[in-house]
Amino acid sequence: MAVPVEDIDIQHEIDESVGANIAGDESWRITDDSTADWALRRIAWHTAQIVRRREVVQREIERLQAYLQSETERHERSIRFFEAHLRAYFERLRAEAQREKVQAIARRRKALQGQEAGMEWRSSAHITRYSA
Predict the structure, then answer these.
(1) Rounded distance, CA 45 to CA 51, Å?
(2) Do residues 75 and 32 touch, judged by C-beta distance below 8 A?
(3) Angle at 57 between CA 61 and CA 48, to 5 degrees
(4) How confident is the model at residue 3 (pLDDT cuts 50, 70, 90)?
(5) Residue that wins the pLDDT comparison between 117 and 69
(6) What is the distance between the alpha carbons of residues 118 and 130, in angstroms, rounded to a whole number?
(7) Which tens digits make up the pLDDT trace of 29-53?
(8) Dist CA 67 CA 89 (whole Å)
(9) CB-side exposure of 93: number of CA atoms within 13 Å?
């Protein structure tokens, strides 16, 4: 959503009447009903400017919050995607490690059984010295 053209340069907007810099002028005074009316109009105009700027800022805040929400959802989808793949990968590693562990145990058991069989044969043959 684009910012309306009238809101683009609110920081540098020209004060629409003579006396734009009067607020800082200590010598300025209200001297009659006409300048009092003018001062009241200036107060109303400045009040309207405050309201207008608040509205512009609020629209921009809402736009940015919607953008943030959209981007957050997009990145969270990516995070879930990668987490799911990492989870599957680590589960596969765990299964492979478990399988390797079982295979290692089986190899050790087989080796031990082979050693026991060799011992039985040596003892039955009365061989006392064995070098592997």
Answers:
(1) 10
(2) no
(3) 155
(4) low
(5) 69
(6) 10
(7) 999 999 999 999 999 999 999 999 9
(8) 33
(9) 6
Determine the residue type at 89. Answer: Y
Alpha-carbon distance of 104 to 83, in angstroms, equals 31
Q: Where are the alpha helices (DSSP H) in 1-132?
A: 33-124
Tokens of 131: 């070098």
Mean pLDDT across 51-75: 97
Report the distance separating Cα 15 and Cα 23, nearest Å.
Answer: 12
Q: Is 59 exposed, middle or buried (0-12, 13-18, 19+ CB in 10 A)?
A: middle
Contacts of 42-47 with C-beta under 8 Å, sequence gap 24+, read 42/17, 45/16, 45/17
Give the C-alpha separation, 68 to 117, whole Å.
72
Please state, in angstroms and rounded to a whole number, the distance separating the CA atoms of residues 59 and 42: 26
Cβ neighbour number for residue 49 with a 10 Å cutoff? 14
Tokens of 55: 């509205």
**Residue type for position 2:** A
